[in-house]
Amino acid sequence: MKGPLFYSKILLFGEYGIIKDSKGLSIPYNFYNGALKKSENPSEAAIKSNASLKRFAEYIQNIDSELVRFDYALLKEDVDSGMYFDSSIPQGYGVGSSGALVAAVYNQYAFDKITVLENLTREKLLKLKAIFSEMESFFHGKSSGLDPLNSYLSIPILINSKDNIEATGIPAQQSEGKGAVFLIDSGIIGETAPMVSLFMENMKQEGFRNMLKTQFIKHTDACVEDFLKGNVKSLFKNTKQLSKIVLSHFKPMIPQQFHELWEKGINTNDYYLKLCGSGGGGYILGFTEDIEKAKKSLSDYKLEVVYNF
């Protein structure tokens, strides 16, 4: 048995903000993927994945059947015979490892599933998001459902607000373009749940709530608009502001050894860094108007280009 591949994703804009109704833009990232598999000689990783799938199967048995129904008998049979999720998606890196797994399980075992081939109305997208949110909560305690949605549909998703999401097109990449979005590997595994708890704790302070509304969400929304319209100049102006705001107000989410690097980008304009997912480790997302300049400036790190302007 080998199921279809599900890809990783990158939330270009909207981390934390989408919890409080900012815009967001999520794109599939085909560099990493995962699939459900069975093997005669499972590796240690496969055995570990199978144990985790067993717990996940028990968890989804308790999801409200009004929302979604699964073929539990078949799922249980497959899990008992050693099925695991074979994935190249790094865990704790903010590129949606649990999202791809959730998408794969829904695809294989859900009854009456909504497919990418039908007309994806807003209602259908919101229903999928609600199903995936319930399923992925097993991994994160609280999930928006967006990662699995992106992985399942494998198309860019524009988040206008919590109850308003749509499939979208993004400007075609300029393969010769100097501008780029890239990833840097922090070398640390990030944990989503504690970072989200910290954010929720901060939200109790009026000053933080104010900053989020008047600065963070304002620039996030502007970045999404700029990116979709191809307003590159304005995009970099807003990304720089976003990078500054994150350095000032989300410092605990940035690994310590990157504080200086973050500031260097803002001061030199060689690149601007932002969180990729919840932060605390994993990947860091970078934006640059000149990828060669950024590579020189970040010569100690390997940059993985995701998109070219």
Mean pLDDT: 94
Could you please say which CATH topology of the largest domain applies here? Ribosomal Protein S5, domain 2
CATH architecture of the largest domain: 2-Layer Sandwich
Give a short account of the largest sheet: 5 strands, antiparallel
Q: Kindly state the percentage of residues in helix.
A: 40-55%
End-to-end separation in angstroms reads 40 Å
Shape: globular
Q: Count helical runs.
A: 10
Structural class: alpha+beta
Order of helices and strands: EEHHEHHHEEEHHHHEEHE
**Rg for CA atoms:** 19 Å
Organism: Pseudotamlana carrageenivorans
Protein name: Mevalonate kinase
InterPro entries: GHMP_kinase_C_sf, GHMP_kinase_N_dom, HddA/FKP, Ribosomal_Su5_D2-typ_SF, Ribsml_uS5_D2-typ_fold_subgr
Domain GHMP kinase N-terminal: 83-147
Overall description:
The structure is a single chain. The protein is α+β, with helices and mostly antiparallel strands and 309 residues long. The chain folds into two domains: 6-167, Ribosomal Protein S5, domain 2 (2-Layer Sandwich); 180-308, Alpha-Beta Plaits. 44% of the residues lie in helices and 18% in strands. The chain has ten helices and nine strands. It has helices at residues 44-60, 72-80, 97-109, 122-140, 146-153, 192-202, 206-229, 232-249, 259-268, 291-297; strands spanning 6-13, 24-37, 84-87, 157-161, 164-167, 180-185, 272-275, 283-288, 303-308. Strands 1, 2, 3, 4 and 5 form a five-stranded antiparallel β-sheet that branches. A four-stranded antiparallel β-sheet has the order 7-8-6-9. A hairpin with a 2-residue loop joins β4 (157-161) and β5 (164-167). α3 (97-109) packs across α4 (122-140). The radius of gyration is 19 Å and the shape is globular. The chain starts with 5 loop residues before the first strand and ends with a strand. The model has no long low-confidence stretch (mean pLDDT 94). GO terms for molecular function: ATP binding; kinase activity. This is Mevalonate kinase. Keywords: ATP-binding, Kinase, Nucleotide-binding, Transferase. Residues 83-147 form the GHMP kinase N-terminal domain. InterPro entries: GHMP_kinase_C_sf, GHMP_kinase_N_dom, HddA/FKP, Ribosomal_Su5_D2-typ_SF, Ribsml_uS5_D2-typ_fold_subgr.
